[in-house]
Amino acid sequence: MYNKDRDQARTLPIEDIGYLLLENDRITITLPLIRSCLEQNVGVIVCDDRHLPLGSLLSLSGHELTGKRVRLQAEPSKPLVKQLWRRVVVSKINNQADLVRCRDTACALRLKELAREVLSGDSTNREGAAARQYWCALMGPDFCRDREGAFPNELLNYGYAILRAITARAIVGLGLSPEIGLFHHNQYNALPLADDLMEPYRPFVDEIVLSLTVTGSTALDKEARGRLIQVSCTEVSIGGLVRPIQLAMSMTTASLAKCYEQGKADELLLPSFVT
To answer: Could you say which DSSP state residue 60 is in?
Structure first.
């Protein structure tokens, strides 16, 4: 890397990079670097003029077992898919409850109860019921979660976009297809599986956004972006271990591949807050 303004050069091993975030219009990048990033499964994220992630580059040959795993992924039993989605939703609601406990203990208890009520495939939409209570308790009664909504929605959008790129990278790296989802199915969505698997990880972004708002942040400025980019380093509890999200997401994805191979949803590893 070369900084023209400071006349400084810096070298980093590509294999030590998880993802490359390009958000300045003055950045120049070479094709050999892009090629090397894809060969090492480094996520390359391109941002728009508002610094919001616009898209990412993913390797097409992330794992030697890609063919086998995608075939299993494309033909799972419906009960397996429904049980997998149930586990994802339960994990997400439990994490929401753990985060909101610092703001509203009663709401946290209600969310824990909703998590216990989740059925196969979340057929009664406990996820939606939990979201309504969660956002009100976390951000206040006037807050409305909307991608185009008022602050701090732009902070959430930015953090979720980073998380989505991390998830897509992990999926490709483990030989699964990000286009084949568990729950999300939309002809205009190229990464439905990433949207599925990132759900239990969203509260870790929410925690950073809450911290930013509490300390006086009022915009998606350089400091806020820097904090949100660090979500990949946030430590979570998963499979009896404490791991940064970037590694935890690979564990989640690897366990999903195992679920497809063995036909058992209880193999799926999902995160929780470190206690």
So the answer is: S
| Tokens of residue 7, six digits | 């006349």
Residue 50 forms part of a structural domain = no
- Give how many domains the chain has, as a whole number: 1
pLDDT at 120: 97
Q: Give the pLDDT mean for 169-198.
A: 89
Write out the E strands in 50-183: 53-57
Which of 225, 183, 229, 231 is closest to 203 using CA atoms?
231
Residue 110 is assigned to a structural domain of this protein? yes
- Residue in 271, 209, 205, 201 with CA at minimum distance from that of residue 243: 271
Encoded amino acid at 137, one letter:
A
Helix (H) or strand (E) run with residue 47 in it: strand 43-47
- Which has more pLDDT, 157 or 8? 157
The parent domain of residue 158 ranges over 63-267
- Angstrom distance (rounded) from CA 5 to CA 63: 39
3-state secondary structure of 99: helix
Q: Are strands 19-22 and 43-47 parallel, antiparallel or unpaired?
A: parallel
Assign residue 164 the CATH number of its domain: 1.20.120.920
- Residue 86 placed within a domain: yes
